[in-house]
Amino acid sequence: MPNLILGLDSSTQSLSSLLVDLDSGDVLDERSLNFDRDFPQYGTRNGVLPHSDPSVVHSSPLLWADALDRLFLQLKQAKLPLGDIQAVSGSGQQHGSVFLTGLAEKQFREMDLHGSLADNVARVLAKPSSPVWMDTSTSQECAEIREALGGAQAAAAKTGSDITERFTGPQIRKFAIEEPGAFKQTDYILLVSSFLSSLISGGISPIDVGDGAGMNLMDIRSFTWSGEALEATAPDLRKRLPPLCASSTVLGVVNPYLVLKYGLNPSARAVCWTGDNPSSLIGTGLTQPGRIGISLGTSDTLFGAMAECSTDPQAEGHVFGSPAGGYMSMICFRNGSLAREAVKKRFGMDWDGFSQALRDTAPGNGGRLLLPWFEPEIVPRTPGGVQTKGLETDDASGWCRAVVEGQMLSMKLHSRWMGESPDRIHVTGGASQNPDILQIMADVFQVPVRRLELSNGAGLGAVLRAAQAVHPDRSWEDLSAPFLSAPMPDVTPDPATADLYATCEEEYRNFETERLSAL
Ligand code: XUL
């Protein structure tokens, strides 16, 4: 029987799937449903529900359940061999929460086959909508929890992150305060990942330590619920939270609903889901410490496995459990493509012109510096305002190099707390197509940079996690090798720039410290 594995990824705007044959390395099917386009009845815009207060950003758990049904229906209609699937897992957008009544466990275990998944879920919802990671309406709740835990550094040391607006704990506190009646009706609080995992496995799924760390409720060192954080967040929270588990947990066989409606094999395994970032760690080949991943998107994200649990003394980065065991770090820099594009636009350039400017200027940029805070920045935390040193306002090529060097120096500087010196960087995202940007990355970090051609790192991570859970004897390297091809040779660092960029990092740090205290 072929060894097929199904990986799913429920992101902010879509549900996508990847069906692979583990033995041949073939991708049999890859598809995606777009929430706005394919489910217009929910009225979402970019995957979220419009709200009069822009800081309140929710979506619908019924939409996510409907999407799961539609996806399995499409796979069945495409006559894919669903009976040969050995294991299913998935990843979800992090931090979002689903609030269910005490009837949920039985409802999911004994699904009504006459109704859809959404019909089954609708009967047990304690709150119709789910706050998601884009919600920024919990500043007050964050301040209260942070104070109870002894400040930002203490909260980060305890839970892996400072108390953060989009994280689940503050969102739960807001719900408990604003809607005490509905909160009282809530017996289960799930994440997007564990909610969908519950539907696949037919029961209430535990929360894995990767996504659990994005709640500000889990003790990051012991991987157990933190009594202190629960206490500071909402009344009687412990009894409302499912247990925590390792990300590789096999929950059992798939829900009979999927067997009877779509022809899944009754012995197919349901493997616990995790958050999209922990899943991407696996999907980008970063299961071992010693390598970091950088995703160059609207925001730039740096992440990597860590041998030991070290938390950010500035309380700006995040620590999650790694699905491969141990820990992972994640640092979000808000001014990613956003800043590169702002410079390109300022000088009326196209990307070829931008790249030419990088080639026309020398490493170190003759001492010209730029702090790329076009928008308020997360790391380091600042309301922003671009800061320059030695840069004339009309120096187009100087600005192009300065923005990229500034971003790379900032990433290097602000990832030092992780205590890892990488030997390779795996890079993904739109701007990873640009070899001139990658050369600066390689020179600043003094390690080779490998571009991965991945359309869905989180989805591939789900496949590999499911595969590893049912084949624990096979190594991550062995499992991932057929899927992680690099489309071009690694970009290697120029050793002649090593001392120069060490000096640049020092100068950047001093300039940043000076401007942060002045702003
Ligand atoms: C991570 C975060 C986002 C979501 C996106 O902290 O909020 O990356 O996981 O899906």
In short:
This protein is of the alpha/beta class. It is built from 20 helices and 23 strands.
Characterization of the model:
This protein has 519 residues and is α/β, with parallel strands linked by helices. Helices cover 37% and strands 19% of the residues. It contains 20 helices and 23 strands. The strands form 7 sheets. Strands 1, 2, 3, 5, 13, 14 and 15 form a 7-stranded mixed sheet that branches. It has a 6-stranded mixed sheet with strand order 18-19-17-16-22-23, sandwiched between helices. Helix 13 packs across helix 18 (457-470) and helix 14 runs antiparallel to helix 16 (396-414). The longest helix is centred in the last third of the chain and has 21 residues, at 498-518. It is globular, with a radius of gyration of 23 Å. 53% of the residues are buried. The model has no long low-confidence stretch (mean pLDDT 96). D-xylulose (XUL) is lined by residues 11-12, 93-95, 133, 166, 214, 275-277.
